[in-house]
Amino acid sequence: MSNLKKFSQFINKTFVVWMLIAAILGFSFPGTIAQIAPYIPYLLGIVMFGMGITISTNDFKEVFKSPKSVIIGVILQYTVMPVTAYLIAKGLNLSPDIALGVILVGCCPGGTASNVISYLAKANTALSVSITTLSTLLAPIVTPSLIFLFAREWLQVSFMEMFISVVQVVLIPIILGVIVQKFFRPVAEKSVDILPIISVIAISLILSSVVAGNKTQIIATGLLLFGVVLLHNVCGLTIGYLLAKALGLGRPDKRAISIEVGMQNSGLAVSLATAHFNPLSAVPGAIFSFIHLLTGPSIAIFWSNQTKRYQKRVESAPVTDNL
C-alpha cells in the first residue's frame, strides 16, 4: 500500500479530530478565518466533484438489485428530517434564523460521510452509497421544494434561486467529476487517494469559516443550538431505524437507512444559508457537521461490536449431530 493511500485512510479515520481542530481555529482566529466564507460554495463544489469522480455504475446496481430498500431510504431521507426540523422549530419556538438553519439541514440530501459510517457499522454499505448518490442527484429539485414548503413561514424563500444554487454547487461538480472519470480515466484513477484528503480539508475550512463568522452568536446561543441540532440528528437516526424496521427490512439495511437519514450534507445547508440568508442561519449546519461526526461513529462502534458478539456466539455454539 502506498504512503499516500495510508495517509488518505488515516485522514478519513480521524475525520472528527480535524473537524474539532477546524472549530477551535475558527474560534481562535475569527478575523482571519472568516474571510474564507465567500469561497464556501467553491469548497463544497470540490467535495461534490470528488463524489462525481468516484461514482461508478456499481453504485446503481443496488437500485436494481434491491429497489425497495433504496426507494424507502430516499423517501425517508426527504421526509423524516425536514418534518422533524419543522416540528422542532415550531415546538421550541426558535428564532427565524435558527429555525431556517435547522430546516435547511433537514431538507438536504445525505452526506458522503454516511457511507464510511455504514461500513464501520457493518451496515449495507452498497445500499448506503446508492441512497446517498440518488438523493444527491435529486437534490436540485427536491431540496429547494422542501425548503420552500417548510421555511416560507419564517422568511421569503425563492425556489428558483435555491434551485440554481444547488445545481451550481452540487449537480455541475458531480457531472464534471463523472466526465473526468469517463474520458480521463488515468487522471481519475490517480486522484482516488488524494481526493478524500482534499475533501476533508474543504469540509474543515467550511466548518472553520462558519464558526469564525458567527463566534458571537454561537457563544450567545451555544447550548440551545447544540441541543437542537443533537435532538434533530438523534431523531433522524432513531426514526429512520424504526421505520425501516416497521417496513420489514433486514438488519444491515435498517442500519444503513438509519445512518443515511440521520447524517445530512450539512455543508450544502451552510452554503445555501451563506449565499441567501442571514449568516446565523448557517450555524446549525456547521454544528450539525460536528455533531453527526460524533453520533455517527458512536453508533457505528455500538453496532459493529453487536455484530462481533453475535458472530462469536454463532461460532461458539455447539454443533448438533442429527444423524
TrEMBL record:
Membrane topology: Multi-pass membrane protein
Subcellular location: Membrane
Signal peptide: none
Protein name per UniProt: Bile acid:sodium symporter family protein
InterPro entries with a match to the protein in the record: BilAc:Na_symport/Acr3, Bilac:Na_transpt
Protein species of origin: Mammaliicoccus lentus
This protein's UniProt keywords: Membrane, Transmembrane, Transmembrane helix
Positions of transmembrane segments: 15-33, 39-58, 70-92, 98-120, 127-150, 162-180, 192-212, 218-244, 283-303
A Pfam family annotated for this UniProt entry: SBF
Protein origin, superkingdom: Bacteria
